[in-house]
Amino acid sequence: MEFKESEYLELKREVTDDLAKEIIAFANTNGGKIYIGIDDNGKVIGVSKPDLVSQKVSNIITDSIDPDLMSSINIENLRIEGKEIIVIKILEGEDKPYAIRSKGLSSDGVYVRIGTTKKQASRELIRRMIFDSSGISYESIKSREQKLTFNYLEKKFRDKNMDYKFDVLGLKNDDGEYNFAGYLFSDQNTYDLKCATYEGLTKVIFRDREICEGSLLESLDKALLYAKYHNMTRGVITSNPQRIDQQDYPGDSIREALINGVIHKDYYMNGSTRLEFFDDRVEITSMGGLKKGMTKDDMLNGITSYRNPIIMRILHILEYIEHYGTGILRIKEAYDKFDNKPEFDTGKNYVRATLYNTNYYQPVKREETITITNVFDIPKGLTDQEVIIYKYIIEHESITRKEVESLLDVKNTRAKNILKSLMDKQIIVKVGVNKSIKYVIDSLR
Question: What band does 72 get if pLDDT is binned at 50, 70 and 90?
Fold first, then answer.
């Protein structure tokens, strides 16, 4: 059996003075195991008096760590390669942060596991662990800014012909002070949404970008308008004749994903919710992982634990959402008839929804299967590669040199020569300058 230290495994030849710190580091992070009787190189050394060692470990946990961690720890005696080994199994703790009792909740007392080592926790991380363990919604804490106005919020109620009853919205705590949710919905809010459109499939070249600022509602409205503008509808004229119109992103899929990102964002983290368009997909990224106790399967099946109930309730009142907890299910339903299904990725500090462009290199679904020649005529005298470029421009309105390289799997020089040939034949023209250069069909041909 091979032993090697990792994020979840620590090896110790014997019980050392820093054992409590190692245990605390695992409990404050993702849990793990400590093997006593195995050296750093993975060689099994064994312990001479396993029962005494186990008792010593138990005493360290009981006497040195606060709060009590024994319910999250299991100590076992194992025999490996004929030698006695002690294994300490540590679960991620429920009452973080755990600390050395004599040091308290300071950087000297609180440790976390990073890679194969323990590290002192920063003051900010300690505060975060305290907050997470409290079970209190961040939106209910007192706002540092108390001089707030709510002009945009009032406008939204007027636009909906609804009575504006501020006192029932939950934007003040019982002491009459504005809470953080109040700050988010105020005109003074500084938490923005960032929108961007990239050329191609990577974040190399911007086509467009916008920072959506203002009240949480105002920034959300701006981002929804950005999404609407960039969700193109493509049309094909068939030989029947009939026109098939299909949006890049079906139904309200982007809207649902974006609103979900705003509702479930961890506002303790300063990062922006991001809406990012690529040629083949759109990604909506919200800061903060899943709420404690939630799993990815729970999320995908519409089971919701509300991190921000005040935000959820106000968006429901103003009809941004119809039913609680149905956003993911509605996104999945919008893609029922398409092959590329939405993907949802979760990390410790983010949740990302990826929605695929239904018109990207994918024929429009219809009863009659038609070829591209049913829709337009191919100019005579083109090479096979030039035909591919011509078809691409017809379908996508333009093409770049990099797209030619990717589409034809050719180098820079060859791509330039093909484009030059099409220009010489007066099939296409070049528009734009420098990095914004594109090639479009020559309108005079």
Answer: very high
